[in-house]
Amino acid sequence: MKLSLLEQETVLLYNQAESAAEVYTHDPKLMKKLEQLAEKYPEQIIKKDAHNFIVPKRCVSVREPYSEKRRKAASERARAAGYKPPLKSSSGQ
């Protein structure tokens, strides 16, 4: 059964005593990224089961939102470097 976008949640669990965080997710893009990282860095990113991963806390961050000026400057730098964003898929995700 396919989950709705609302049901594709992600939960981060960590505490001050441990150096790792647990990531529980049903977000397909995040799951794919975590699976790839678990293959590349098996000693640091651990796949517990289909939806649970253990990651170093240093991999979890909350950043200041980009200002419109900063976003535009980053976009212009990417264009100047020849980066082309991927085409949006028509599957609705």
UniProtKB/TrEMBL annotation:
Residues 65-93 are annotated as: Disordered. It comes from the Bacteria. This is Immunoglobulin. Residues 65-79 have a biased composition (Basic and acidic residues). It comes from Eubacterium plexicaudatum ASF492.
